[in-house]
Design brief:
159 residues; mainly beta; 1 helix; 36% strand
Length: 159
């Protein structure tokens, strides 16, 4: 039996992109066109939290606007000027800016690239079992079960 070895260090932009562009069911998955995630934490075997290097093409979004019940999230902008959309409104970010989203606040958030330039940012989040995602703008609910997201309509019907 061969044991998988993780790299010591890599150039983040050389990490393989996630093969499945989105875990959302349709009609939501297709709205993630222009987003590419490179799961950096997985390359090193990290289990307690995830780290993604995420690229947004012009007009792309990071995710559906969402909030987590148990997962803290953090983003750090490396390149470009994405718009952060939260319950408080819209805020343009620039390289070097960061934002955090505390679990349980119900503050829906996402990034939108409303510019003609590319956006590159780091996203970090924990992997707390039993986390739920709420989507204030869409008929969608999510539940993290054994590391996988399960999606339903807000009334509980499965997708």
């Amino acid at each position: 039996m061969t044991e998988q070895t993780n790299p010591i260090a890599i150039n983040a932009v050389d990490a393989p992109a996630r093969t499945k562009p989105s875990v959302y069911p349709e009609p939501f998955a297709s709205r993630m066109a222009g987003r590419e995630k490179r799961p950096l934490g997985d390359l090193f075997g990290l289990k307690n939290f995830g780290v993604n290097l995420t690229h947004l093409a012009p007009n792309a979004v990071s995710a559906l606007r969402h909030a987590h019940t148990k997962q803290d999230e953090f983003i750090y902008v490396l390149q470009g000027r994405p718009t952060l959309h939260t319950d408080e409104g819209r805020t343009q970010l620039s390289p070097g800016m960061c934002a955090g989203f505390k679990a349980g606040t119900e503050n829906g958030h996402c990034l939108i690239n409303e510019t003609a330039e590319e956006v590159l940012y780091l996203e970090i989040g924990d992997r707390t079992t039993g986390d739920e995602g709420t989507y204030p703008d869409d008929d969608l609910k999510a539940l993290l079960v054994k590391g996988n997201w399960q999606f339903t309509h807000k009334d509980g019907r499965p997708y």
